[in-house]
Predict the structure of Ribosomal RNA small subunit methyltransferase E.
Amino acid sequence: MKEVRYFYVPDAANQVELPIEEATHALRVLRLKGGDEIFLMDGEGSFYRAEVTAASSKRCLYEIKENMPQKRAWKGHIHLAIAPTKMMERIEWMAEKATEIGFDELSFLNCQFSERKVVKTPRIDKIVISAVKQSHKAWKPVVKELESFKEFIQTPRPGRKFICHCYEEVEKKDFFTEINSCSMDSDASQDSSASQESGADDITVLVGPEGDFSIDEVRLAVENGYESVSLGTSRLRTETAGLVAVHMAHIARRI
Amino acid sequence: MKEVRYFYVPDAANQVELPIEEATHALRVLRLKGGDEIFLMDGEGSFYRAEVTAASSKRCLYEIKENMPQKRAWKGHIHLAIAPTKMMERIEWMAEKATEIGFDELSFLNCQFSERKVVKTPRIDKIVISAVKQSHKAWKPVVKELESFKEFIQTPRPGRKFICHCYEEVEKKDFFTEINSCSMDSDASQDSSASQESGADDITVLVGPEGDFSIDEVRLAVENGYESVSLGTSRLRTETAGLVAVHMAHIARRI
């Protein structure tokens, strides 16, 4: 039995050829030939069954045979905005694992106590694409460039917005309890497509750097409509907190 | 302000000296001297405030000043039994992250489709200890040696037992829904110490190797009282499935 081969091809329906990296893999590793069946993922909700029509040493042309639109596995838009860790590999595994579990957008924040001010987002994007393929996700999470904390929180966003932090002096609710109760309400309305449109199920959650957000940043976020929350009693590293937040959001929003 | 220094000292109350590795760190890296305050974690529920009484080049003696028994952050015993992955570093990060989140026991299973038949558990135990210290956990998860799948499932265990797998032909319930509803019942009884004693809140969950359990293994587990479950619709790598299972159990049992 042949294994099903998935290739990531943005805008696959309007293309006729695999992107260069995917073509290299198809031709050199899998040794595909004309007539072979392949599956394309456009990262925006569709898989396509296609056939290789021509394969040279470097190029792989295809013809789409079937459009297979996929069902969403969770409601709303799950957006994690996190301060990158000093050791980049820690954020890299988090990006891989969060993609496997299922989320929509990854932003990087430049915070007051950030030790890292540069992020190679193309490298993170590659890791995300690889996890999308490996875990057969129909939607590819969007990876954003690093931006300033202030700019990020001042950008309007639909749905509920949360900032996770460890300050005792700022009142905190429990993140999972908050998003879970909200989700049950929208279950009751039985109209998930309407809430998908309105953004009512959307979750934006902020996770700070190794030294946490500054208390001024927390207060500024609260002033900008972010709810102050805790991820629980466990003391978590930045990247673990990011993954825990994504997983909680995924559980609360899964369909 | 001096940072609080935590040292892992099994049976700390009955010892008077830091174990050799901890002593090396205390003396060479932190350069502690007689009179310095340190904190000991015994990995079994207690922290101790102690004072360094004598420090030579290799040995560090202490005297306990205060016993600080810690409260448990979750109910019951959370036990993950997992088939080790081909690449050991994947299980290593899972052990670190699961410890940060909070669980009690990690077992390794030798399964029919296991690609790895050897696990260096002392190395995993070191990673777990380091995560216990870093995340200030009062209880150290126990790390067990690799054992055969059959032996493991035939050992009697209190509480509920689950096997996660991907077979369509074996009926599966949703793991999180199952453990969450059970937890709500025991919340209602308001008697968590009794359920802690009885093991009613205990969760044992099995995660298979890259190629999944064999269907015979799944059936054998079910015959031995394991409930057949799914972790959701996402296709997860072995180590991600292990972490997701631990995190779900932690959420369902947190106090």
